[in-house]
Design a protein that fits this description.
The structure is a homotetramer. Chain A is an alpha/beta fold. Chain A contains 15 helices and eleven strands. In chain A, helix 4 packs parallel to helix 9, helix 5 (89-100) packs across helix 7 (133-149) and helix 8 (157-171) crosses helix 9.
């Protein structure tokens, strides 16, 4: 097979408005194990969306936007279900922004083509998904291009991602739904605490390498800005897809308010979809009870679902969309808050 | 139990020089499953250490330095087994630097004390390990203090961690072995690509919040500096404990050299200890063959070991220490390289 | 809480005919990871049901019938979707037959009540599910009672389970759907290769202990009878929920035909829902490619789905039920075949 | 590669007496996570061996005897560390008895040779291990041969396995250590509750198919005999490698004594090495606390270790062997007890 043949079967994103998962989720609530956990998690999600006092923070880790979940996640932004996002870089840049530029992911399979051959053909693989490496290089360079248009100072990743949204908006969006673009339009902040750890890193290193005066990405600013949101928001709920840095970073923000003498309550609602185990002591699989010992998460409304995200996230968002509590939620537009202030609130 | 009683059983770090794991590792090589994988991985580790052309990068994710592995990891720095480290922030700041300040971790158990009660007592829990939260706050403030002594400009996390090592050295090291301190003494760079995602974040947000002029942590600089090391080193091997940002970040550096027009070979050796599964498509559990499709890792000398790190890492390092190939390795002192140059090599 | 309060929230079984999973499964087919695997597995399930030449064997391991899947599995028998079942004993006796007697499972939670206290109250726990131990003892004794009515000779587990179905039928079924009862009515054989490893073991040991002349359960007969079905059926497909003995036993039957000089083709279709990993070398997580090396499973139509069964099995059966290929399947009634012959076919 | 080349690298079994794991296990006791769990489990193992009142039951699931653990497990029998064994059939027949006949396992790799090609060559694969299928057929036929020499009545699997030991003893043992042979010499009972689910099944179906009068394997007898041992033993400890039928069967025996009106205490000590997760509700990964709710396992001395067995079992047995509490243990020779009685004790 040549490259064109290998990259022929386009991956498509699920549209959770086309089916109503509510009867399923309700029935699952009377069963056992992860079915019941999924049902309870969805119930808490709806409760969180119905709570007028609560700001919702979504965290993303794992290859979600390349796996067909991009449109479902973008829908959450578009319909005011989410007020801030903390993500790995790959989801935001290599996957969402990449499709926003008009590129696509392709269906493949783990052992279909030898990885050495894929390398020679310039095809990158994520488990069962293929990417055209040339297109990914264009994505890297778009980041360098955007960096070149900005004043050479320190930025939070959020500020830079906002600029990426503006760039997409000006250029014309190359796909139907995009987190980066929707967040730009809705003033929803997106943070990538390890922003260099993705396609953005390539573009930004290129930018710094080739410019005497260059911008920097201040990772402290990310944490400071999310802390400011927590101070402003008061009540918060977190919906975590996967673990990793986004999970830890978002939980930590409660402690940060305390350290700044602006103590705020623990996250009132906490949901996590994960396949990680708690028995290796790593943060990704740590229980939400453990997070309570750190003063980060309250344990009244918390639920973990042990599942690979593609299987259950569409069901949860479909239920929440059809239930409709998002219709009464105000757009908090935290980008506006962050734009009008310096380091200190 | 009161706080003092709960925090009474001090966790101790394994000293891998006190037993010789070589007969065990050799015997495991003739067995099957993960025993054989462990033996093969150790063989590759020794091969990598014996390869005079090869620089070794160690990546750390998961709670390793709080779990009794701190001294074994520090030994790798002290004996020139490792030339650069990429880590999650918690390992470096909350755990290693924390013990370097003289604080300790304590043995606990998952369901021994209710997490709400731990919270009230100011005890933080990592699975079966306890931490005195008041001491952790002192650690946060030490970071703020160090930040206050530095010129307000953009730093890589590596630069800041070097300053932490100097601070420990000046103050007097509060434990026998420390990664941060050993790396300072040996000029081994340590990078935390998500540096705000740990105790450092608390200290640095405090620093920025309370100072009009403040330093920033440029995450692009981290990636640029590691890329410079790759350009300088040429041949490299990576020893990955866990996955997460450190795994991805370190693999990406090969691609970065290409983007800067300084193309260097893929990582020649690649080892990973992980409990992650490949079937969720996330980076942590992705195979090293998959990394080959991205042009990051060569597949001749690669091995994954499916195990929780505390069980197998002491065996691997004990074998390598007793085998002794580290005795002929030169100290590369990459901190010196990075000190003498600007953004561009 | 007293026993009655703890056992108050009845677990209910999902009815997969009340929602149509087809749009979801179709959308999942264009995504990645386990969503796509689930979609492909469902496609193979439908293909297998539409193949007039193919007999379908269902294997069950894990606590499925206590977890809300009983009615969905019984539906497969009632609608001719399945021609033989191989199961762990617990699913058939402690869970399905138990509910057939009119008893129920109750919703609980892992750490809601201390297990020592549950023990004192006579409540047995399966993760998040509670059982009244007194009722389970009645179930054990019903087995002893049935054994007492049978002629004292060697039985296959299938024969005994058929007698359990007759007993339920005579007594009046105490729940809406039951695998044991439906299999009795439809002449579908159910095998438990480790029949003593469940409530049946208690009843049958009681029977042997208290009777001079007693029946025995010949586990060789189970294997011989399933082999006869394979010889008769020719083409077969296997739908495996979990791994364990049922998976191995059913795969082995292909080899058995060869050993008897009646060589039959490998299982043409093979599906498995499992959370097991292949890296421990155990059979439960072994790939279906590995099974091909043993001559057991063909690799054209095989798919594993990495998920906890309660999450995905209702979706698969709902899709298959609504697709409707079962309407054209003949009832093979293999119990009749097995009734009319001796050891040899 | 031809068959001979593929089957050239012989797998060897670890000899745990050649290294002393005690310093390692002691050091692990002061660490965290699974290292500490392993240390505590080994401590309980030693405590159990030093308890003169306690009979030890070993349970085996997963491919252990083909993976290099055969000699370590046989050592436990040879040195009176274990008084009864409950196992999957494959460990006992396809792997241990098979090597006892003089055959060997070979080192391979998961994707080294295509599984279709392995099939054509008559090579069976267990993850990274190869078996000559022709030799496995000889093993099947040896079972048929042994069955042919026995009086045609109902046997427990234990009785049949004892006959296998006698057959090996008469023929001359074809390897250095064998569980089946050592158990025969030491009168240690071995039970396979699903005895047809392995090579024995092939041989025994062949036996029944070709003989008008044939023996049967009564799985109720297995459970009854193990219950008799529990009644005789009183205090018991269980050391479980993997889960599956052997775990459940052995735990259930406590309940069985109660049902027979001969109530005996719960298992006093309970250890399990497993990679299974509790969150699917299956027995294999269920906690030992959960087993307490069923009245099966006491919770004072219980410990699970989350690890693949080849990595940790040699360390535990090495520690126990060097600690030497086995030297004072009497051989209980439960085969003698079972030989001298009918169904009832």
């Amino acid at each position: 097979m040549n490259k064109k043949e290998i990259l022929s079967d386009v991956l498509r994103h699920v549209d959770v408005t086309t089916f109503d998962a509510r009867p399923l989720i309700t029935a699952y609530g009377d069963m056992a194990f992860q079915a019941r956990n999924l049902s309870r998690a969805t119930d808490i999600l709806n409760r969180m969306l119905a709570d007028r006092e609560c700001s919702v923070i979504l965290t993303l880790a794992g290859s979600l936007c390349s796996a067909g979940l991009k449109d479902a996640l973008a829908l959450m932004i578009e319909t005011n279900m989410v007020d801030a996002i903390v993500s790995t870089g790959a989801n935001i840049v290599d996957q969402d922004f990449f499709e926003g530029m008009g590129f696509r992911h392709y269906k493949g399979a783990p052992h279909q083509v030898d990885d050495q051959k894929l390398r020679e053909l310039g095809i990158d693989r994520i488990y069962d998904t293929y990417i055209d490496e040339d297109e990914l290089r264009e994505c890297d360079m778009a980041i360098a291009e955007i960096a070149g248009t900005l004043e050479p100072r320190a930025y939070s990743s959020r500020e830079f991602i906002q600029a990426m949204g503006a760039w997409l908006d000006k250029r014309g969006l190359g796909c139907e739904h995009s987190l980066v673009h929707a967040a730009y339009k809705k003033d929803v902040p997106i943070f990538c605490p390890a922003f260099s750890d993705c396609s953005a890193g390539f573009g930004l290193v290129h930018h710094q390498w080739h410019n005497e005066k260059y911008l920097t990405i201040d990772s402290v600013a990310d944490f400071r800005e999310l802390t400011r949101i927590k101070i402003e928001a008061g009540e918060t709920g977190i919906f975590m897809i996967g673990g990793g840095v986004p999970k830890n970073f978002t939980q930590d923000v409660v402690v940060a308010t305390d350290i700044l003498g602006e103590e705020k309550p623990m996250h009132k609602y906490a949901l996590q979809i994960t396949v990680a185990d708690e028995r290796d002591g790593a943060l990704s699989g740590s229980t939400l009870q453990e997070a309570c010992s750190w003063g980060k998460v309250d344990t009244v409304y918390e639920q973990m679902v042990w599942a690979e995200a593609t299987l259950v996230l569409p069901l949860m968002i479909s239920d929440a969309w059809h239930t409709g509590d998002w219709k009464k939620r105000a757009a908090r537009q935290y980008n506006k808050l962050l734009a009008t202030s310096g380091a200190k609130a």
